[in-house]
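Form 7-S
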Amino acid sequence: MAFIEKNADISSSTGLSEASASDYVALLKPRVMSLVVFTGFVGMMAAPGQINPVLAAIAILCIAVGAGASGALNMWYDSDIDAVMKRTSRRPIPAGRISRQEVLTFGLLLSAFSVVTLGLFVNHLSAFLLAFTIFFYAVIYTMWLKRTTPQNIVIGGAAGAFPPMIGWAAVTNSISMESVVLFLIIFLWTPPHFWALSLFMSDDYEKAKIPMMPNVAGPASTKFQIFLYTLLVAPVGILPWVMGFAGPVYGVFSAAMGVAFLSAAWTVWQAPVGDAMIKPAKKMFAFSIFYLFSLYAVLLGEILVSKALLVAGL
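Output:
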């Protein structure tokens, strides 16, 4: 807490912030935001019906801004542990380039802008889902779950899974089983993705006193749970084809990617605890990103081709 107090008014002596434009961009967690925007866009394109292109652009902008707001609020609250962890120590607050108060104000303004704009121009359901997503990530996950339970990623993963549902609701003003499946793919993917990371970053989490699964239940239990969750996400990844809102190309591709994901999880599970598990864990972490992105990319590709053929009358 001393760190928070020390950095709460980092620029009070001059009255000027040392933050650059790149610092404000960093607060938005652009890499995370890009995946959020992409999955939200796929949800929008997969939804039945039409949406005005201008409204679609507004919806995507609001999803992006809302995701950025969540990232900023996360960095505001977690600035103390960010300073301890090697991979986050150069973020704007712990690096001393911006105050916590500025980041809190920035995050709240972005949150209000994204939710109000989406509600006014698109529909209230999508705005509610966006508001709930920001609240869930900033309050439920960041302020509560992250520091109290090794299930933080399991429950908190819901925040990153809502964007395709928001995109779907922006078009249809409803929630359907199809949008729930798109949600479930990301929700079930999150634990093996982050637990693979935590296997080779456990020292960082230990220093920050974050109860990640390897630090609480041990690496052996974590590896087993990674495999169990991969067993769940692999068949769920095929459901868009089973339910008929994805085509055979997606069906074959998702099945093959599910097998590859399971293979990576099996390799991690079978690796001895210690240095021997680090390399397969890193490989699985990298592959998990490709897995999720490629599933949504192939689904989007099929949807765009289908729409193009429909327009062409073929």
